[in-house]
Amino acid sequence: MSLNDLNNLHNQYPTKTGLAYLSERSVFRGKDLHNDLDHMTWFELNLFGITGKEFSEIELKILNYIWVSTSYADIRIWPNRISSLASAARTTPILSMVGGIASCDAELFVAKPLVSCLSMYRNLGRKISKGISLDDLIEGKLHQNKTIYGFGRPISSLDERVPHLVLFLNSLKCDNGYYFRMAFQIEDYLKRKKKIRMNIAALYAAICADFGFNEVEMNLFVSLLVFAGMPPCYLDTLEKPPGALLPLKCKDLNYTGVMPTRW
Question: 37 lies in which domain range?
Answer without folding.
Answer: 13-54
